[in-house]
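Notebook entry, structure prediction.
Reason for the run: the old model in the group folder had no record of what sequence produced it. Starting over properly, with the input documented here first.
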Amino acid sequence: MSLTADDVKKIAHLARLGIAEQDIENYAKDLSGMLELMTKMGEADTRGIRPMAHPLDQMQRMREDVVSETDQRQLFQSIAPQTEAGLYLVPKVID
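New structure, fully documented this time:
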């Protein structure tokens, strides 16, 4: 897919980017190259390959799930305008 100068101007406007007029052709060429690369990557056969969360085979260190704060819900809800069954009640803002 090849982008034109007009395409780059539209994208820049939508992204609220200021691009100098003399740089637009370079942006069009670079962005077109990126889109072509993405198209080629999309055509790659990935059947049988498991998705990865990280490029390195690492394990996350886990911490113990312990309570580190005291329960202050009653204190915080005592100053709220409206509560019910431990929940904060707020006015409806969307119809």
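Summary: The mean pLDDT is 91.
The old model has been moved to the deprecated folder.
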